[in-house]
Amino acid sequence: MHTDKGTIETGPNLLDGVSLPAAAVFEPALAHNLAWMQAFADAHGARFAPHGKTTMTPALFKRQLEAGAWGITLATAPQCRAAFAHGIRRLLMANQLIGEPNMAIIAELIAQGGEVYCVVDSAANVEHLGRYFAARGLRLRVLIELGVAGGRCGCRDLEQVLALAEGIHRQPALALAGLEGYEGVVSVDGSEPAAAIRAYGRRMVEAAQALEEAGLIEAETALITASGSAWYDLIAKVFHEASLGARFVPVLRPGCYVVHDHGLYREAQIGVLKRQPTLKQGLLPALEVFAQVQSLPEPGLAVVAMGKRDIGADRMPEPLRRYREGGPGAPALSVAGWEVVKLMDQHAFVRLPADADADGSDGDEVRIGDIVAFGASHPCLTFDKWRRVCRVDAALNVIEDMPTCF
Known about the structure:
Strand content: 15-25%
Number of domains: 2
Number of helices: 10
Oligomer: single chain
């Protein structure tokens, strides 16, 4: 059997029937995460539109919707088209829609029955969208983005938000459907990072209330949407406790939760659980990359056939477990003291503890061909390396071949 990031047959075991390296999502942790985050959104009176750019995996989009998600968030027009082609009909594009070729993609999705939202933050973009969609005889739902000084996109203050809303109101082909933001652009370098996130959430609430008081919201049900995968608990609480009235509905958008990770978001989850002690257990890491030891060129060094083409590299991968090649049921061997110190395109340099590559009487010495499971930080940057990802059970049996749409 061969993955080559192109073809995977279902049914084999990662230890003897899959060409490695391979990316694997563990079903038990996946199922837990899907249920956990949906329950979190429900408990906070919010709709849930997980960010699909994390995985771009339609099989996972389907699982998210089956678990109760209201829609799927995407970042670009081509991502929206890919999701729509796999049956996703409600699409929240948490980004500006710029350029007529991209507008044409969204127009086609709306013409085919898609419910599509996009983000605006400038009069120039509003005017261009208004002309284009009027010429197509279509109406586009837009959300005003509220940003922060020094951040990326978004209106910087309430005055800009209200002025832009007036401009949208003058465009018959556009319908103002609410307010969008992303707290991940807020500077949290100070001593009170949570306070900065809460303050941004309150700014969003105030802007939403001002839009409604000015009579500028056209949608019968308006959205107020934010929350990435690190501070979602704070945003959810601010929205839940706000006096938004019946008009505005909170929409949460974390994406990395679905497989979690062994780095950035594992650390963020520790913060969530400290801030919210009533939450149980938290999310579980579900994504691992399996690769083989291909060289032991000198004492204390193993070279593994896995690199930047296979796994995210904003932090070094974390060795988790090791197995002998050759079949299901092989016991996990220790990787205590193993450390990835360098990544090249197709190679990982692993520093071994002093006794790891000696001939051990217990038979757990490192061998050429050993299979190592690695955890990654920031799952977005691992998924985008793969055309297909294996969904596996706890015994490492492949139970689904999941194509991606990058």
